[in-house]
Amino acid sequence: MLQSKHCDVNGIKLHYVQGPQNGPPVVLLHGLTDCWQTFLTLVPFLYPYYTLYAPDLRGHGRSAHCQDYKIIDYAADIQVFLTKTFKEPVSLIGHSLGAAVSLYLAAANPRMCRSITLIDPFVFKDIVYDKAFLSYFSGCLQVISQHNNLENIFKAIKETGALAKKRALDLSRLDKKTITSVLDKHVFTGFKLDELLVKVHCPVLLLRGNPELEGHITEAKADYLQKGLRDCAVEYLETASHVVHLDQPIKTAQYILYFLAAL
Questions:
Q1: pLDDT (tens digit, 9 = 90+) per residue, 154-171?
Q2: Gap between the Cα atoms of 25 and 2, Å rounded
Q3: Cβ–Cβ < 8 Å for 209, 222
Q4: Cα 54–13–1 angle (5° rounding)?
Q5: Which residue from 207, 209, 223 is spatially nearest to 259, judged by alpha carbons?
């Protein structure tokens, strides 16, 4: 059973869930406009072997809203969370924005990280100039600016079915500034990819989706990351989009379990 908890970090309350003590700690970090529940597809596979922790990043889910939403701000919160919660290095699993936070932490605090798994990471700045990317997040911002009612948000978003219910709830709790920081390009301030890559000492697993299905990481970008990192394994999930862990949860979990077992 996952328990809901809070941790005081940098003057804000960070919400997170924690599983039972089943093994080494694994911390799951979600992407932009999402929340910890995005990893429910992976929890059944990881739960028996690892002690899981899954925070809601600042401005998301049940965590507090604040002023700044750069990658380095999210990372500063998680650094405090790790320092307060653990006495040993942890394995980080991050999707999109959460992957960028994981990479930053592994570079800035090598002793904190046993390993990092990057699921279709949000680490290349060119994505914030992509028309489809900007259109999607501009649409999200428009919806939450026009509607403060969960039912109306549900009707206004493009997702359907059970996923739409979750997305509507995520957006209803979201701080609008999390999106504006991306649209105005400030989210990458202080995040220097080349400098970070050479500072990562722990093993890295990169999972990427298909760029033709809106995956962010092309083969060329995967090669760039692999060459810049000391120890990086790459897996390509051809039928997955940017949300690799939702589209291919079993394969994603298999790759992660194999990777963690070899540490």
A1: 888 877 778 888 999 999
A2: 14
A3: no
A4: 35
A5: 207
Question: Rounded to whole angstroms, what are the CA distances from 181 to 42, 44, 157, 186, 243?
Answer: 29, 34, 21, 5, 21
Other CB atoms within 10 Å distance of the CB of residue 102: 30
Q: State the architecture of 3-125+186-261 in CATH terms.
A: 3-Layer(aba) Sandwich (3.40)
> Position 199: which residue type?
K
pTM of the entire structure?
0.97
The total number of residues shown for the chain amounts to 263
Mean pLDDT for the stretch of residues 216-223: 98
Judged by phi (left if over 0) then psi (alpha if -120 to 50, else beta), residue 61 lies in left
Query: Where are the domains positioned within the chain?
Result: 3-125+186-261
